[in-house]
Amino acid sequence: MADKQALHQTYLPKSELFESAHVKTMEQYNEMYKHSIENPEGFWKDIAEKFYFKTPVQGKFLEYNFDVSKGPISISWMQGASTNICYNALDRHVQDGNGEKVAFFWEGNDPADEGKITYSALLKQVCQLANVLKNNGIKKGDRVAIYMPMIVELSIALLACARIGAIHSIVFAGFSAESLAERMQDGEVSALITTDGFWRGTKLVDLKSISDKAIDLCSEKGLQIRTCLVVRHLSPSDEIVETNGNGDQCDGVAKRPCHKLKVKWVEGRDQWWHQVVPAASEECNCEWMDTEDSLFMLYTSGSTGKPKGVLHTVGGYMLYAATTFKYTFDYHNGDIYWCTADVGWITGHTYVCYGPLLNGCTSVIFEGTPFYPDAGRLWQIVDKYQVTKFYTAPTAIRALMKYGDELVKKYDRSSLKVLGTVGEPINPEAWVWYYNVVGDARCSIVDTFWQTETGGHTITSLPGCTPMKPGSASFPFFGIKPSIVDENCKPVEADQEGYLVFSQPWPGIMRTVYGDHQRFETTYFKKFPGYYCTGDGAKMDKDGYIWVTGRIDDMVNVSGHLLSTAEIESALIEHSSVVEAAVVSQPHSIKGESTYCFVTLCQGIEFTEDLVTELKAAVRTKIGAFAQPDMLQNAPGLPKTRSGKIMRRVLRKIARGDRDLGDVSTMADESVVDTLFSLRPSTV
Ligand code: WT7
Asked: Which residues form a coiled coil (predicted)?
């Protein structure tokens, strides 16, 4: 256990590690920050000069309205200029003579599976896939769903879409068929790119059959997916058949452990990647995109339960992904960078794929989990590739802490310089362990606060200059102007909690919710006219450090994944035995938060172990395994106001076993509270 003082002290960046940092002092940071806020056009114009634009800006460099009372919310950067993000991520580096540089080292789920790909090889395959997409009739503006594990082909797929101007919609491979179908329908996608299957630790995920089911669900609702491209990662082929010594057939990249995955095939719709991609032409011109054309959509939970397709555009996102990557990780040529996030989430979009590639960086892509074959896996990979910049989530750090220091110390970590964290507030104990044990008290920690909606880091320390306070994301990134306000939009005093809002646009901010601009305005701009509302609570201390305290809406952050309580409730209510459900968040020692579900059953139905198992499975099927509830409780009645609103504040207290309920004068029937306390499982 770290001592109290270690948790509350301020840590200074080690100057010997950061002599050549892009930002070396707080004076330099303050100066750059001031410039970025006072003159955003000038600040980002200088940055834009480092990128390739086919045609220059022809309108305003920045034009926006952040105030709903003045008209529709709109944001545009670099009006009229054209570019292509894939060109800037790949072609530019190959033309500069860096084609032989490794873009990605790939590390499989099994430690014996590995691979690598250079910038020029990546470009070649991206062009080939882009041609395959075009041959299938996919063109600029069409949506393409991508549902894949962490393999190099996932990055190829997203870059190929970007190259031809198709809008990618990546769905994390942990989502269920129903969730995939819902996202494909909302985005009206024309094609799906997927994989036969993959191993995650010792678990086999049969991705193609989930994809088949999702495509069928779409077709029932009238959306026909005519093209399904499938990467052969596991299943045996007719052509080259190898054996792994155990008598199992195998081929493809992931060699072990092999198995007999059978893939169902729909002729005319399904195409093997390895049959069509290598056969396609290696030449594919970029589609020159208007900077405000759509680049991708990515779904995030919404408090109404229906996921929102967060839409990002080409030009602004490109500048922001590249710039945040460069400064937050203090990127220099020669770095080996590794972000453990899945490309299915925004962290993977911006900091596995676009950000590193736009900077010409060499990074690691990891297919597996931190616990397989043992809990030393992350540090073994750091050692193997001599990783210099490492980025992961507090939930992983907390889980690994429990295995003790030996599994870390066994591996060489002397290459490390920057350790990043993202996804939720990091508790100071985990921070101090990350700092002392993983980083040997040498490295800078960057605690990066941001969201799917923000495209890139918004509040973060910078490794070469920011004095670090464990648990605080510290200061705003360039171009971000934060305020912490109360219900009436008045700034709160130091150390007081309020809503974290941003008052001017940065290039990477989302532009709309796909197909629902009104929802975009209501969710983010209505509460505080003139501000983008993050939905998070925060306070600022006397030194100006920002401490994000967590969501203030009906969202739960489980292991860094945002889930909407409404979405889980609706999955539970769909079960024929349930009449009503209310889901609240509950602190969890590893996941940060977990879900605690109160369910009211139909007359005559008993609350049994079997029913609990069924209800958990219902949520898995509806949303995905990562959303499975941790705790279910029988609730013959729910605490409600006289007007019938469920009092979640009270339910949170009950879930925590806290009898100090606060003001319950508006409650219709107080007796339900005692009943709920008496039915609370003893295991919580
Ligand atoms: C929510 C966004 C983009 C990161 C991956 C999650 C929470 C994220 C931090 C941090 C405190 C954090 C917030 C935010 N969050 N990073 N460093 N400190 N909270 O993306 O699914 O869009 O979730 O994650 O609550 O609003 P997301």
From this structure: none
